[in-house]
Amino acid sequence: MLNPYYLIPKVGYCPQQIDSLDIAIARSLQLLNRVQQKAVDIIGGIKGGYRREYFEKHRLGEYGPNNPLIQGLAKMGLIKVMRNGIQITTKGKNVRSPAGQPIGSRSKKASQVAKTIAEQMGGVRRLKMFLGAQVMELQGDKGLGIKFPNKQRSKGNYVEIILDRGSDTYNVTFFNLSVRAKKPVRKETGVYADMLVDMFEKQTGWMLRL
């Protein structure tokens, strides 16, 4: 598996390298690459009449059964190509992006909750450089999702950190995220901000501090 530590300290922050690293790690985890993920998100989240426009906008090719990308997703069991259109399957729904926008997206500002959690975890840049992570804002201004590489199923490869507004603490759940399912492996409630990094490091084996 590609080691994200090759980026430190010889090479500075480079978006192109990070994007390539994200794709390589996704493939090593048998998840989807960015093109496949975008296609699944469009098919699963946008009504049929508008999908062609979005496929063209994101340069995914022509929306239809002859598109090799769509054929590949169908072979993976993520979508079904039918006479009356293309439908996402249950398996496909399980691999849709767990959040609406990556933190730092130009098209949408991240919520204050997500930004605060990211800062408490060391910052988006550090998460990407140290882990090759995908850092996502959870829908509904609930918190932050972090997808990271990990071969140990007991450790998980995705975590959701959700703010409990009543107690001003966090509910933290680690999952195994795959093309088949999103299975929880550990859940903790009442986690304080200064406990987040330590919990993440102990659970995943990834170090966020030098």
Helix coverage percent of residues? 25-40%
Q: How many strand elements?
A: 8
The H-and-E topology, N to C, reads as HHHHEEHEHHEEEEEH
Number of domains: 2
Termini separation comes to 21 Å
Break the fold down into its secondary structure elements and pairings:
Blueprint: H1 15-28, H2 34-45, H3 48-57, H4 68-75, E1 79-82, E2 85-88, H5 90-94, E3 99-102, H6 112-120, H7 124-131, E4 134-138, E5 143-147, E6 158-164, E7 169-177, E8 182-191, H8 196-204
Antiparallel strand pairs: 1-2, 3-4, 4-5, 5-6, 6-7, 7-8
Would you mind describing this structure in some detail?
- The structure is a single chain.
- With 210 residues, the chain is α+β, with helices and mostly antiparallel strands.
- It has two domains: 61 residues, Arc Repressor Mutant, subunit A (Orthogonal Bundle), CATH 1.10.10; 108 residues, no CATH class.
- Helices cover 36% and strands 23% of the residues.
- The chain is built from eight helices and eight strands.
- Strands 3-4-5-6-7-8 form a six-stranded antiparallel sheet. A two-stranded antiparallel sheet has the order 1-2.
- β1 and β2 form a beta hairpin.
- The longest helix is centred in the N-terminal third of the chain and has 14 residues.
List keywords for this structure.
36% helix, Arc Repressor Mutant, subunit A, 8 helices, elongated, 6-stranded antiparallel beta sheet, 210 residues
